[in-house]
């Protein structure tokens, strides 16, 4: 029998409560180490505004310039789509054909690893290559998802010294490569402006007069724009590497390409057409604030990365690149998700702090014992940081839904600890009223500790399993699939983790803290003015219900 006459409970939970209460130092050391692990996880968990709701998909992009959409559909989109239908794990295949472009979307089952899916697509694309037109090479899109678009900027020349073609060249050959090297960036897409290209405008009359075909011009230009290697020539004990240099560097080089040589003067490209430096065909423009066209860049984040860390790295790199930009050129951010991420996490952080403060105040008001109130209050932050450990290793981002799950759980996380502390107060009150003596009749701290442990063992197993029942209350949410599952599962996971750790702390941390903190005289229930008022209000109601109960 315990010192207060209550038989100690049996079972593993009761044994754990007793062990933690009798060895509080070891228990607190273990909890502190676990909390440090949780703090590390909080600092390294990926941050984003919302969960990633996109499907697991791989995009196959194919370019065949100058062909109609129907021809693209028949010779590229259809062969690729029909081949990918047989790939393992593919749920649906969607194809889109445009003028000169083909897009095929292979959508995989939920839970499929993205990189495994990309490997399967590459494997099946090797088998369809022989069915495609000569020179057509399909490529797969970046390893990103639908929410990977995290940052966008525009290049603006306030001085007017650079035209759109020069700004596009600056974006394509300087900024894009500098940003693509940042860890976590999957792609930097350029838009707007004009892409420079060499253009040869052939004259049909000249071609007919000089008996030159269009294919001869194409083959001559292709063959002339390359270097060729030679052997090593040894002269005077020195080796000289012989090579032919033939890369086109300017418009004049293209004009001088020989199409036909024979009797009389050679026929060159300049004899059959006009060679100029002009813009490539484009299908859209980029415009900023109604002030005219600009050149822009879109930063796409790699799958599974920390969106906030990637955006901060991109902005830091852009600040470094500003010093090397031409005079008058500015980088204007047009979309920055970091503001939304910080506002979302700040709102939930404030809500968590407010809930913690309110719960702490209510606990203190009803216990009117600072050290006892501190026991359930400490359970909240420790349980919250521990919930981030499985979040980090599961790859769940800290977003408005996952943090919302923790906010939902805070109110119930302290229930078990409060019940344990309340029962300890009640048993200590009875023990002090009866006389705080050990069975031998000697007054001592050992008897008080036995009363505390027996009181917690009396209700600990019941509240532990009751909290576990509340923990699995979100079990139906785990049966959701596709978009609904991707939206609500983070909330269910974090709420379950927080409640699970709260249940574990109620039988480990709470007994250890109770053995240390609950000392001195304990006020009785009727000594608390709040309790007296509430008892005075509901006691008549209870008596009336008992007297008028239905037989």
What does this structure look like?
The structure is a single chain. The chain contains 18 helices and 14 strands. With 551 residues, the chain is α+β, with helices and mostly antiparallel strands. The strands form 5 sheets. Strands 2-3-1-4 form a 4-stranded antiparallel sheet. The chain is elongated.
Q: What summary fits the major beta sheet?
A: 4 strands, antiparallel
| Uncertain residue segments | 1-5, 438-443
Percent of residues in β-strands: 15-25%
Averaged pLDDT, please?
Answer: 84
Bulk shape: elongated
Which radius of gyration do the C-alpha atoms yield? 37 Å
Question: Could you list some keywords that capture this structure?
Answer:
14 strands, 53% helix, alpha+beta, 551 residues
Give a brief description.
The protein has 551 residues and is an alpha+beta fold. The chain is 53% helix and 17% strand.
Chart the SSEs and their pairings.
Layout: H1 12-22, H2 24-44, E1 57-63, H3 69-84, E2 90-98, E3 101-108, H4 114-128, E4 139-140, E5 149-157, H5 164-180, E6 185-192, E7 196-202, H6 204-209, H7 214-224, E8 228-235, E9 238-244, H8 251-255, E10 258-260, E11 267-268, H9 269-272, E12 273-279, E13 295-301, H10 307-321, E14 329-336, H11 337-367, H12 370-394, H13 400-413, H14 415-434, H15 445-471, H16 482-506, H17 509-517, H18 529-547
Antiparallel strand pairs: 1-3, 1-4, 2-3, 5-13, 5-14, 6-13, 7-12, 8-9, 10-11
Helix pairs in contact: 1-15, 1-17, 2-12, 2-17, 3-4, 10-11, 11-12, 11-13, 12-14, 12-16, 12-17, 13-16, 14-15, 15-16
């Amino acid at each position: 029998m315990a010192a207060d006459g209550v038989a100690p409970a049996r079972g593993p939970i009761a044994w754990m409560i007793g062990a933690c209460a009798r060895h509080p130092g070891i228990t607190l050391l273990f909890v502190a180490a676990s909390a440090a692990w949780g703090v590390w996880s909080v600092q390294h968990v990926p941050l984003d505004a919302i969960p990633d709701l996109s499907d697991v998909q791989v995009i196959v992009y194919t370019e065949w310039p100058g062909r109609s959409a129907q021809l693209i559909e028949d010779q590229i989109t259809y062969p690729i789509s029909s081949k990918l239908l047989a790939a393992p794990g593919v749920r649906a295949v969607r194809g889109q054909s445009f003028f000169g472009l083909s897009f095929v979307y292979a959508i995989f089952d939920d839970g499929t690893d993205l990189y495994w899916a990309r490997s399967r697509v590459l494997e099946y694309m090797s088998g369809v290559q022989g069915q495609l037109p000569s020179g057509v090479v399909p490529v797969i899109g970046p390893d990103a998802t639908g929410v990977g678009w995290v940052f966008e900027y525009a290049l603006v020349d306030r001085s007017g010294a650079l035209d759109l073609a020069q700004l596009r060249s600056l974006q394509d050959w300087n900024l894009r490569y500098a940003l693509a090297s940042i860890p976590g960036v999957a792609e930097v897409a350029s838009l707007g402006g004009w892409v420079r290209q060499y253009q040869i405008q052939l004259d049909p009359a000249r071609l007919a007069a000089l008996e030159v075909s269009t294919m001869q011009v194409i083959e001559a230009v292709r063959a002339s724009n390359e270097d060729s290697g030679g052997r090593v020539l040894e002269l005077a004990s020195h080796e000289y590497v012989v090579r032919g240099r033939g890369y086109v560097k300017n418009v004049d080089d293209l004009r001088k390409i020989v199409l036909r040589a024979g009797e009389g003067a050679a026929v060159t490209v300049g004899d059959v057409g006009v060679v100029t430096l002009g813009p490539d065909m484009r299908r859209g423009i980029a415009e900023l604030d109604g002030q005219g066209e600009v050149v822009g860049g879109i930063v796409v984040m790699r799958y599974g990365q920390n969106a906030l860390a990637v955006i901060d790295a991109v902005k830091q790199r852009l600040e470094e690149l500003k010093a090397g930009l031409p005079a008058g050129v500015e980088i204007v951010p047009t979309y920055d998700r970091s503001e939304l991420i910080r506002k979302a996490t700040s709102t939930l952080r404030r809500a968590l702090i407010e809930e913690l403060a309110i719960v702490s105040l209510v606990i203190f008001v009803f216990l009117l014992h600072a050290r006892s109130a501190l026991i359930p209050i400490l359970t909240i932050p420790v349980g919250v940081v521990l919930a981030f450990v499985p979040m980090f290793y599961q790859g769940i981002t800290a977003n408005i839904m996952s943090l919302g799950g923790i906010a939902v759980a805070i109110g119930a996380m302290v229930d078990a600890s409060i019940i344990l502390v309340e029962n300890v107060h009640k048993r200590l009150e009875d023990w002090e009223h009866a006389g705080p003596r050990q069975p031998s009749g000697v007054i001592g701290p050992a008897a008080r500790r036995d009363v505390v442990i027996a009181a917690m063992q009396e209700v600990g197993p019941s509240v532990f399993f009751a909290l576990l029942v509340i923990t699995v209350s979100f079990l139906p949410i785990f049966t959701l699939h596709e978009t609904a599952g991707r939206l609500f599962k983070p909330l269910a996971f974090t709420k379950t983790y927080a409640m699970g750790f709260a249940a574990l702390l109620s039988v480990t941390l709470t007994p250890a803290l109770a053995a240390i903190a609950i000392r001195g005289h304990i006020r009785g229930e009727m000594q608390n003015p709040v309790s007296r008022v509430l008892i005075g209000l509901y006691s008549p109601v209870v008596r009336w219900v008992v007297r008028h109960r239905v037989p």
